[in-house]
From TrEMBL:
Xref: Gene3D superfamilies: Amino acid/polyamine transporter I (1.20.1740.10)
Database matches in InterPro entries: YkvI-like
Name of the protein in question: Membrane protein YkvI
Keyword tags: Membrane, Transmembrane, Transmembrane helix
Transmembrane in keyword set: yes
Signal peptide: none
Domain of life (superkingdom): Bacteria
Annotated source species: Virgibacillus tibetensis
Keyword Metal-binding: no
TM regions (residue ranges): 33-56, 77-100, 112-132, 139-160, 180-205, 217-241, 261-284, 296-317, 323-343
């Protein structure tokens, strides 16, 4: 169970990233639909649990050391090749987004120049990737409980200081900008673009586990924690929508409402999540081409990290808009391919 929880926590830490923890993604994909956003959160939880379980077990079955083998197994020779290329590209793209996001956070909260903030994150990421795989997973997993604690504090504060009725909160929430036309599509698109990147590291993590039940449980726990966090953040923002409406970082706004010290703790949590995501994405990207025990691995980590820093200078907002929107549609293709592979697996089992 300990190993399953570690896999699940690392999966959560990888996916959360900057937009999730800040509340901006949850606002656009869930809270902007008002009370119905809660139903979207439940649907997203179910999808994360099922897909986390599926990808984790596939990783164990194939003893994957990179996502390539599993993606080809899911999509076949031709579709698998396309998915492999696209996922590999977006792993790098999301890591670059995290570098840019950390620069913006350092600037907003601590007055540190964005380039200096990005350099700090790039340096930490490179140093982490020079460690072995087990240490990387342990570091990523450790930060998740800290974020969950901060989110719980914000949720409890929000509920007990709510000034609006649910009808008023619902009406005001629906005035916010939505990423999609309805809550069902919002839930599917949110899960799809997160899995497009997150599935790669989950596959690699599970590849080092011999027991497929342990790996599958890790995927289930990770999916349940992700879904739970979505619902908690959504409810916290919905009941305080009069406070967070229009804010770039809603959860940070709520944290500052409680006390400036809590705001700083939340900012640290945001940076930790960006670090988690950058480490996970860059590791998955690098091992796609170079084995962790290869002599070329460490030099490649340094070169790729420096390249990521240069590209991050394009800016956080610009990168999010271009990278994340495209990833959503890639994720749909990945989910469909995984479901088909799961159905085929089930049929083969009973024949």
């Amino acid at each position: 169970m300990k190993k399953s929880f570690q896999i699940g926590s690392a999966f959560v830490g990888l996916i959360i990233g900057a937009g999730f923890a800040s509340g901006q993604e949850v606002m656009q994909y869930f809270t902007s639909f008002g009370i119905w956003g809660t139903a979207g959160g439940i649907l997203a939880t179910i999808l994360f649990i099922y897909l986390g379980y599926t990808f984790a077990q596939l990783g164990t079955d194939l003893q994957a050391t990179s996502h390539k083998g599993v993606i080809y197994h899911i999509g076949g020779r031709y579709i698998g090749a396309i998915l492999d290329i696209l996922i590999t590209f977006f792993l790098f793209g999301v890591a670059v987004v995290m570098f840019a996001g950390s620069g913006s956070t350092f600037d907003q909260m601590f007055g540190i120049d964005t380039r200096v903030g990005s350099i700090i994150m790039v340096t930490l990421t490179i140093l982490t990737l020079l460690l072995n795989t087990k240490k990387i997973i342990s570091i990523i997993a450790m930060i998740t409980p800290y974020l969950i604690t901060i989110i719980f504090i914000i949720l409890i504060y929000s509920i007990f200081t709510m000034d609006l009725s649910f009808a008023e909160a619902d009406a005001l929430a629906k005035e916010q900008v939505s990423a999609t036309g309805n809550w069902v599509l919002g839930a599917f698109l949110y899960v799809s673009y997160n899995l497009a990147a997150g599935a790669a590291l989950l596959i690699v993590m599970s590849g080092g586990v011999k027991d497929r039940k342990v790996a599958g449980m890790g995927g289930i726990l990770g999916g349940a924690m992700l879904g739970g966090l979505i619902i908690l953040i959504h409810i916290g923002m919905l009941v305080k929508i009069d406070v967070v409406a229009g804010a770039d970082m809603p959860t940070l706004e709520l944290a500052n409402q409680i006390h400036p010290a809590v705001g700083i703790l939340m900012a640290i949590a945001l940076l930790c999540m960006m670090y988690n995501t950058a480490v996970g994405m860059f590791y998955s990207f690098t091992v796609r081409f170079i084995a962790p025990d290869s002599k070329l691995y460490k030099p490649a980590v340094v070169v790729i990290g420096l390249l990521g820093f240069v590209l991050s200078l394009a800016g956080f907002t610009t990168l999010v808009g271009k990278v994340y929107s495209t990833m959503g549609y890639l994720g749909f293709a990945l989910i469909i391919a995984a479901v088909i592979a799961w159905i085929k697996k089930g049929k083969a089992k009973y024949q």
